[in-house]
UniProtKB/TrEMBL annotation:
Transmembrane segments: none annotated. The keyword Signal applies. The lineage of its organism: Bacteria, Bacillati, Bacillota, Tissierellia, Sedimentibacter. GO terms for biological process: carbohydrate metabolic process. It comes from the Bacteria. Keywords: Signal. It comes from Sedimentibacter saalensis. Pfam families: Polysacc_deac_1. This is Polysaccharide deacetylase. Residues 37-46 have a biased composition (Acidic residues). Residues 25-34 have a biased composition (Polar residues).
């Protein structure tokens, strides 16, 4: 690999210094192999930008990377495996179905780090843009209801600081503890996000500036099945408008259904698109309440309008808490998503090929093995 990088660097230098008209056409990243498209495997197609430009005579020495040749199959990549979308609510002193203690939340994060899980954003999942490194499994953390113990400011020595035992405080702690841990989470908010009205602006901007996502959990947390089209649009649109009053450029595009309640069939589209007070909203992913890992975004079985979540708890008696699924993944009785390390390549075992949703993979290179 290092030799190949070196080769590319040297070739790039020669090209740049000898041909003044090829600026911007030198491959920008990765290692190099000879100029050959990978033609042996019928499943592989190259997007236009990686195909060599044979019309340009000056590019004779240009080297093309075959991203598929870079995939390490010994890591057993499986990008049709399942991904857990964890459903947290509160972080507080007592453990319950809807609350995790700070100690247990730290235990969860430590488990993820030690067992090669990497947090990704729900938005990236919904777009099929999974940038998890090779051999690692993406995992998504969601927090519903915008409780103050998700993001709490406290005063310490006259200074305002993030409560070290609130969700954001603990996530930031792990970000600092492990520099190679991708720390993020999605917070689903309604009115009065995180309490402490005087700090809402600071909190919203902190989340957006530090790589967290904000989603919609509706204005009054009512079951959407009880509502008509105008009320559904008001429930969703008003929350977006509130959040955007603090972070105007942030695009809210995910919705967690209160009580997991879908609108009636005839109003289902308003869950995804609508408008309120002259502003439109559009959701690309809608979260249910439970009770199993989600499919890969590339799986034909997946439904972005009704994504499964796993309760982030250990006290469920019906074997559907997060550690039950961790155990099943480790035992191999369920297949987890294992990344190939390249978000432009979708690597899948041959036996799952029939489940590949090519509408979602789009221009990505498909690598079946
Ligand atoms: Zn809720």
């Amino acid at each position: 690999m290092k030799k190949a990088y070196l080769l590319l660097t040297v070739l790039s230098f020669v090209l740049l210094t000898s041909c003044s008209n090829i600026q911007g056409e030198v491959p920008s990243s990765g290692s190099a192999t000879e100029q050959e498209a990978p033609v042996e495997n019928e499943d592989i197609t190259l997007p236009e930008e990686t195909v060599s430009n044979n019309d340009n005579k000056n590019n004779e020495d240009e080297v093309i990377i075959d991203p598929v040749s870079q995939i390490d199959l010994s890591l057993n990549p499986n990008e049709l495996g399942e991904i857990m979308i964890l459903m947290y609510h509160g972080i507080g002193d007592t453990e319950s179905d809807w609350q995790r203690t700070p100690e247990n939340f730290r235990k969860d994060l430590e488990y993820m780090y030690q067992n090669k899980y990497q947090m990704i954003s729900l938005n990236d999942y919904a777009k099929g843009e999974i940038k998890t490194k090779a051999g690692y499994t993406p995992i998504i953390l969601t927090f519903d209801d915008g409780r103050q113990n998700n993001f709490n400011y406290i005063e310490e020595n006259g200074q305002l600081v993030i409560d070290p035992d609130c969700a954001v405080g603990i996530l930031e702690e792990f970000k600092n503890k492990y520099s190679d841990f991708d720390v993020t989470a999605s917070f689903f908010l309604g009115t009065n996000p995180f309490g402490q009205k005087e700090y809402v602006n600071d909190k919203m901007n902190f989340l957006v500036d530090n790589g967290y996502d904000i989603g919609n959990h509706t204005y009054s947390h009512e079951k959407l099945e009880m509502l008509g089209s105008d009320d559904i649009q008001a429930e969703i649109g008003s929350v977006n408008n509130i959040i955007n009053s603090y972070v105007p450029d942030y695009n809210i595009e995910t919705l967690a259904l209160p009580h997991g309640s879908n609108p009636k069939d005839e109003y289902l589209d308003y869950m995804l698109e609508g408008s309120y007070e002259g502003r439109e909203y559009k959701n690309i992913a809608v979260l249910d309440v439970g009770w199993r890992p989600a499919y890969s975004p590339f799986d034909t079985m997946n439904n972005f309008k009704s994504l499964y979540r796993v309760t982030a708890s250990e006290i469920k008696v019906d074997n559907c808490g997060m550690y039950d699924y961790f155990k099943q993944f480790e035992a191999g009785s369920r297949e987890k998503f294992i990344s190939d390390g390249n978000s432009n390549v979708v690597t899948i075992p041959k036996k799952h090929e029939e489940y590949l949703n090519k509408e979602i993979t789009g221009e990505k290179i498909i690598n079946v093995y």
